[in-house]
From TrEMBL:
Its main location: other. Belongs to the neurexin family. This is Neurexin-4. The keyword Oxidoreductase does not apply. Residues 182-362, 368-533, 789-955, 996-1176 form the Laminin G domain. GO terms for cellular component: anchoring junction; membrane.
Length: 1276
């Protein structure tokens, strides 16, 4: 098969866009596997040249090769260090390998990559979202870590920028790939290529296209094709952005846009992948995902496929210019279109192709852009001197709103200066001694990042300013004599132009920028970049969320959040409450309020209007309106369901679903009034239900029950209750009555709400008596699960561990807390180096700390009130590309700006720990609710219901059980409690310990009311006592000023006796039901009410007894000017009470407690014998101790354990066996040594010769002589 036949098979028989079974497709979800089919894995750095921004003396860039004995180490470990690799020529780079410095802890843990065809133009490798991709690096100095490029890098120069490191920036590297073969097509602006699809039309559900292009023009058509059924495909450049317009025959155009600054004459990678109606569109790895409009999934094309231009304007094309530039390696599915076209022409089989004014090459246009990177940079170009005319022209692009673009001093005196001010181009001119002139001829702003042409021509009495081919002429008395030098982009002051220029002509002369003389014509050093436009579009993709408008300068972007409903540096934080309940929680509310709510906070759902109704019983109802709430007449629709009304709500279905899911209950009222118009045609059988009318649920399902009935019942409310007008029917309207009847009720099934449409029939004609009227009320919801999703942390090291939270470049956490703790961590998460932590400090300050690659940052919010006051407080934490933001209680805010340089994503790998640090320290005790992560609610209650250690569902403190007795105040701590007994006559841990005194007959205690004497009309008096002597004075109050008094005593008969005179007459009360002198403990309470006319006496556990007194209108029942309180007796008595008295209380005065405290006040004292404190024989009440909980041991992941140790099990077994054998051998040898033979044996050595130095000495010192026996020979 020749090349043409092969091309026909690949492109025609199956259709250019059709994916056959043996061709892999790029799916609409990911194209990461598409390039794995290519054998492109060869090392590329054998002959590469390596340089670096800095290095240590013995660790230069040439040492940065994989598996080398040492490494490249940067001299300074900062973000400005780069390793630059020159591969010699353009290569196809597919992946990278990285090592650290061997046998050390110096390695790079994260890095970014930029690449280019030359060493002047570098493009960052980006993530699909448009951010600079941060590649994961090493975890030690020896191991190799690989990263694969999803879309291969086509470049000669590769630059590695370490962004995180351990100890020092040190690395060894290898690039892998293969040679790059470029198949180019050049279009000069008048050429095109077409491929005829008429005889072999395309009908595909999936296709993929990828290619590279470069151009110096902002507009142009790259690809187009269409079919006779209305399908079309248009790929074009519009204002230096790539636009894809697509229609699958539904007459609904889907438009996607990606990329910016694409007219920079640098190569850009394009990938388009469609799978039915799902499509991804990528330029330079920045991905836009879309859903094609309409219902069709097949692309039908039967005309021609055009490249570079079309013969005439077609549907879907929005530009009028042809493409000027180069296209390279155009792959349609897996076929290289340019290669196939070349082969077809070579083999003489190119009858389907039309090629006009195009060449198989990519010539570089003579356009050399210049980048002015600082306001102090400029170039100085010579012109014709002493001329009476001048002409300067150039192209410029910038994002700055100010800066001088041109300055020239006239030889005749004066100057002309062209500058940007608020983005507008203005001219400042002064001629000789004439007044200064400011020309402002254009209303638009030119700092939009696009290329703009500029021409300034001055002649006698005439000045022409031409921007973008729109000349503005000024006629004045102008006479000039030109100077010698023209300053471009500044030069006179430090307020120069920042941006790019190209084709700079002075007086018609053009000098190539690369021929400019540094120092003489160019200032200053690297601040002017020649042959490259190094501008960055920081607004593409748009970093502003929720439709915020992005603006930028050369350093940073800004977001205009007006009319979005959101605030913050990137329009992330919602200005609207989460719900009606949230609105009520933050302040005073009226009974009814119309407002917008944002159910997912910072999430993607937009705010929508509701009506909030607040009731006195605490209920909060949210009402969502729609367009058909009025009563609507139905007449003249006889066929079932022939009348149809779709309901349009003030929110879309996603917003409504979020509201329904968060609400406790929801309902919607639907009623139908009828006259001789049937509703359900009841009764009916389940398989034969044919109603005349029905309503449609949220999921577009016709429902088989009416409002007020049960799902599946085929009934109305009256049929469920058995109250229909006709007992044989299940709906009132089914009685077919000539009188008006009604069927209605509330639909309460949340899974079916809201009503999406209503359909009616059996209403006859407009001329008969059949008629109906329906009324559909608004959707009403009550409650918010967000605020009932509450948990209590009752132990300081208790936590809820959530899955790792990918905060990335932008994320937020919202929660509400209630605590009494001064210092605690609310949440914490960590990564290898990054972390986030929110803590409460000192009870009145919240602090958010985080680290994202660089040093730690923090933002604090201090309050003038206590945050640990056991009330609910809200906190919102947001971190985005520009700042970190902390908002407390919806109004107190603080921000911290991100440091200069690339913004790094937060890399968090640990669980998001709620309630403590990841090490379970600095724990929080209290309640937390309404936890939202990026607007999504976290079901904390679900975690608590699992029986987590130290965590309970709902907000339940230790004080809920009222552990403090006798009017003691419970102070909540959630992990415990304490009791404040200051307003009690008791003491002790739970205010249950008696404070009493044993009185003898001579004992007397007096309390003096200091200052202004007290007057009362409703006293609260209490005294407890025990005695065996049935008489005595217990407690008394008196006033010498008024003569009024009150005495509580025991009578001689053992009864309780109260005598008082409050000014209206003396009264006496006897409590005769009990004898009080039997040694039992008694508790007596005396109080008054009803303006002092009723005395309430309570003794022990008896029912209170009320005594009513008739008081004349002129009488005064007030106990006036009380001066003294006596216990035991008063100063006029000789014998006092004998027994034990405790619990003495007069309103908020506790005299015994005061007397026995340390440093008692002077107004309470014992006037008789010395008294000591006593508990009067009453043992204090105690509570069971709080159950002690301990944290369970951590769960062991057996799979991870097996994975960690499984590979070493065999080796470990062998090592253990060897160690055992070695141990046995050692035991054997030691045993032989210990048990060696020690017996005596006989020698012939002389005694005493053992220490001799030689044989002669041995003989001399011998004491026994040598026993030498001469051998004898015997003959037998």
């Amino acid at each position: 098969m020749n090349a043409a036949a092969g091309l026909k098979t690949a492109l025609l028989c199956c259709g250019i866009f059709f994916i056959t079974s043996n061709i892999r497709n790029v799916s609409a979800d990911s194209y990461s596997d598409y390039f794995s089919d290519y054998d492109c894995n060869q090392p590329l750095m054998e002959h590469a040249v390596l340089t670096a921004t800095s290095s240590l003396n013995d660790r230069g860039p040439e040492k940065a090769r994989l598996n080398a004995g040492t490494s490249w180490s940067a001299k300074n470990s900062d973000f400005d260090q780069r390793l630059i690799i020159d591969l010699g020529y353009v290569r196809n780079v597919t992946h990278i390998a990285l090592q650290g410095r061997p046998h050390s802890d110096e390695f790079v843990t994260e890095y970014s990559i930029s690449y280019g065809i030359s060493d002047l133009e570098f493009a960052d490798y980006k993530e699909p979202g448009g951010n600079v991709k941060m590649f994961k690096g090493n975890s030690d100095g020896n191991s190799i870590h690989y990263n694969v490029f999803e879309v291969p890098i086509i470049a000669q120069w590769v630059r590695i920028n370490p962004t995180r490191w351990h100890d020092r920036i040190s690395m060894r590297v290898e690039l892998y790939g293969c040679d790059y073969v470029a198949e180019n097509l050049y279009f000069n602006g008048t050429g095109l290529v077409s491929y005829d699809l008429q005889y072999e039309p395309v009908a595909s559900t999936r296709e993929s296209i990828r290619f590279r292009f470069k151009t110096a023009f902002a507009n142009g058509l790259l690809m187009y094709s269409r079919g006779t059924q209305g399908d079309y495909f248009a790929l074009q450049l519009k204002d230096n952005k790539m636009i894809l317009n697509l229609d699958l025959g539904s007459s609904l155009m889907t438009s996607l846009s990606v990329g910016s600054l694409l007219d920079d004459n640098v190569w850009h990678d394009v990938v388009i992948s469609r799978n039915r109606r799902d499509i991804i569109f990528s330029v330079d790895r920045v991905i836009v995902r879309g859903r094609i409009k309409g219902e069709f999934t097949r692309l039908n094309l039967n005309r021609a496929l055009y490249l570079g231009a079309v013969p005439n304007i077609q549907e879907g094309i929005i530009v009028t210019q042809n493409f000027t530039g180069c296209m390279e390696n155009l792959f349609i599915n897996s076929t290289n279109f340019v290669r196939a076209m070349k082969d077809s022409f070579e083999y003489g089989d190119a009858y389907r192709y039309t090629k006009y004014q195009t060449v198989y090459a990519c010539p570089s246009p003579p356009i050399y852009p210049v980048t002015f990177t600082t306001r102090g940079s400029y170039v100085k170009i010579k012109g014709y001197e002493a001329q009476n005319t001048m002409n300067v022209s150039f192209y410029f692009r910038t994002y700055e709103d100010r800066g001088v673009m041109l300055h020239h001093d006239f030889a005749s005196g004066g100057y002309v200066r062209v500058f940007l001010e608020y983005g507008k181009v203005k001219i400042d001119m002064k001629i000789g001694d004439k007044p200064r002139i400011i020309l402002d001829n254009y209303d638009e702003q030119f700092n939009d990042g696009k290329w703009h042409s500029f021409v300034l021509a001055i002649a006698r009495n005439r000045l022409v300013l031409d921007i973008d081919q729109r000349p503005m002429t000024t006629t004045k008395n102008i006479q000039i004599s030109t100077g010698k030098v023209y300053y471009i982009a500044g030069g006179v002051d430090k307020n120069g132009f920042v941006g790019c220029m190209r084709l700079i002509l002075v007086d018609g002369n053009y000098k190539l920028p690369k021929d400019w003389v540094p120092g003489e014509e160019v200032c200053c050093g690297d601040e002017v970049v020649v042959d490259a436009c190094q501008m960055i579009d920081r607004c593409n993709p748009n970093p502003c969320q929720h439709s915020g408008v992005c603006h930028q300068n050369s350093m940073e972007f800004f977001c205009d959040c007006a009319n979005t409903g959101y605030a913050g540096a990137v329009c992330h934080t919602s200005n609207n409450p989460l719900s009606c309940q949230a609105y009520k929680n933050v302040g005073h509310v009226n009974q009814r309020v119309n407002l917008k709510i944002d159910v997912d906070g910072s999430g993607p759902l937009e705010p929508f209007p509701v009506t909030c109704e607040f009731y006195s019983d605490g209920r909060v109802i949210t009402t969502l309106s729609h367009s058909q709430e009025h009563t609507t007449t139905v007449d003249g629709f006889q066929e079932p369901g022939s009348f149809e009304q779709n309901i349009m709500y003030d929110a879309n279905m996603l917003q409504i679903e979020a509201l329904l899911n968060r609400s406790h209950t929801c309902w919607q009222r639907l009623s139908y009034s009828c006259r001789s118009s049937r509703l359900f045609n009841s009764p009916s059988e389940a398989g034969n239900f044919r109603p005349f009318s029905w309503w449609v649920s949220r999921h577009n399902q016709p429902m088989d029950y009416w409002a007020g009935a049960l799902p599946g019942s085929r009934k109305c409310e009256c049929g469920i209750l058995g109250k229909c007008h006709d007992p044989t029917k299940w709906c009132n309207c089914d009685s077919n009555n000539l009188e008006w009847t009604e069927d209605g009720g509330d639909i309460r099934e949340k899974e079916h709400l809201p009503v999406r449409a209503v359909k009616f029939g059996d209403t006859g004609t407009p001329l008969d008596e059949k008629q109906g009227r329906y009324t559909l009320g608004p959707l009403r919801c009550e409650g918010d699960d967000l605020f009932t999703n509450v948990v209590t942390f009752r132990i300081a090291d208790a936590t809820i561990n959530l899955p790792p939270f990918d905060m990335g470049h932008s994320g937020d956490i919202y929660l509400e807390f209630k605590t009494t703790q001064e210092n605690a961590v609310l949440f914490h998460a960590t990564g290898p180096t990054d972390y986030i932590k929110l803590s409460i400090n000192g009870g009145n300050k919240l602090q958010f700390q985080y680290q994202a690659g660089s040093g730690p940052l923090g933002v604090n919010v201090g309050t003038s009130y206590h945050l640990n006051d056991n009330k609910w407080h809200t906190v919102s934490v947001e971190r985005n590309r520009k700042e970190a933001r902390l908002v407390v209680d919806g109004s107190i805010k603080a921000e911290v700006r991100e440091p200069p340089g690339p913004v790094r994503a937060l890399h968090l790998t640990s669980d998001l720990v709620i309630g403590a640090t990841t090490e379970y320290r600095d724990g929080y005790v209290g309640c937390i609710r309404a936890l939202l992560l990026n607007g999504k609610m976290v079901d904390l209650k679900q975690y608590a219901m699992r029986g987590l250690y130290g965590v309970s569902a709902d907000c339940v403190g230790r004080c809920e059980s009222n552990p403090c007795l006798n009017n003691g105040t419970c102070i909540e701590r959630y992990d415990g409690y304490s009791c404040d007994c200051r307003w009690s006559a008791f003491k002790g841990p739970i205010c249950a310990d008696e404070i009493g005194v044993n009185l003898r007959t001579s004992s007397i205690i007096r309390y003096e009311f200091e200052g202004s004497f007290r007057s009362t009309i409703a006293e609260n008096i209490r005294v407890g006592f025990t005695t065996t002597i049935p008489k005595g004075f217990l407690l008394g109050f008196s006033s010498n000023l008024t003569g009024e008094y009150l005495t509580i005593q025991i009578s001689n008969s053992g009864f309780l006796r109260c005598v008082f005179d409050f000014g209206f007459e003396r009264q006496e009360i006897i409590f005769p039901k009990k004898h009080f002198g039997l040694g039992q403990y008694h508790d007596v309470r005396f109080s008054r009410k009803n303006g002092g006319s009723t005395v309430v006496l309570t003794v022990d556990n008896y029912e209170p007894v009320e005594y009513n007194f008739d008081i004349k209108a002129s009488a005064d029942a007030q106990f006036n000017n009380i001066q003294y309180m006596y216990i035991g007796k008063n100063e006029s008595m000789t014998d006092g009470f004998v027994g034990c008295v405790s619990r003495v209380q007069f309103d908020d005065i506790y005299p015994l407690k005061l007397m026995f405290q340390q440093n008692p006040p002077a107004n309470v004292k014992s006037l008789g014998t010395l008294l000591t404190e006593d508990f009067c024989g009453v043992e204090p009440v105690t509570h069971p101790p709080i159950e002690i909980e301990t944290r369970p041991p951590p769960l062991v992941d057996e799979d991870k354990l097996r994975k960690a140790y499984g590979g070493f099990s065999v080796v470990l077994g062998i090592i253990l066996v060897l160690l055992l054998l070695l141990l046995l051998l050692m035991v054997f040898l030691i045993g032989r040594y210990v048990h060696r033979h020690k017996g005596d044996y006989l020698t012939h050595e002389d005694e005493g010769a053992a220490n001799a130095d030689d044989p002669d000495e041995a003989v001399l010192h011998s004491r026994t002589g040598h026993q030498v026996t001469k051998r004898k020979e015997w003959f037998i």
